[in-house]
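Whether sequence alone determines local backbone shape is best considered at the level of individual chains. When preparing material for the folding task, we compiled for one chain both its residues and its backbone structure tokens. The sequence in question and its structure tokens are set out directly beneath this paragraph.
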Amino acid sequence: MPSPCDPAYAPAGDVGAALMMIDSQLKAIYDGKSGNDPEQRALVAQVTASMGAEGADDVLDGVCSIIYVFMKWLRLAHEAQGKDVIEYVVPSLVTSMTMMRRSVSPEAIPTMAGLLIAAGTGLSPSLWRRQYGDWTKTELTPLEATAVLLAEHINHLTDNRDFATRLINQALTDVEADYEARYGDPDGDPSYGGPYDD
């Protein structure tokens, strides 16, 4: 019997907007700027506010989808070396979070560790978190920080500052190609027969 947290049941969310936020944070880190750059935070707050509640939920789901893809990639990479992703990745990320006192409150760390473990064991982080109610305001920045830390970890492992971003972009391209193979091109194919086509 499939788990209620099976990724097949999870909303993908707005992966594009979530990736933009994560990539912006990574670039700030690599440029030597503070992750809490006031201008960057104000821009993110403005974009998030313009989305409304439903749009913000889509971005949260998008961040969770990205965390899932990152952890899946890390799990496969570690398994290829006979290692356990939970043992080798989660403790180091939790240690990093404990040092990010301005961005990650101590109360949020167990939730973020749970998200990582859920994703590392093949569960949807979004559905795993949903079991415990709505997201709290104090979890939003830690969630973003978790995704950024994972991306930076992957970039460090591959010695490529763009690897994590390219990984997500490739996943989006693959999904789009799969969708078009199944239903046709909605922008140019007159025979388009999408999943909701009568």
Notes: The radius of gyration is 17 Å. Residues 190-198 have pLDDT under 50 and may be disordered. The longest helix spans residues 38-79.
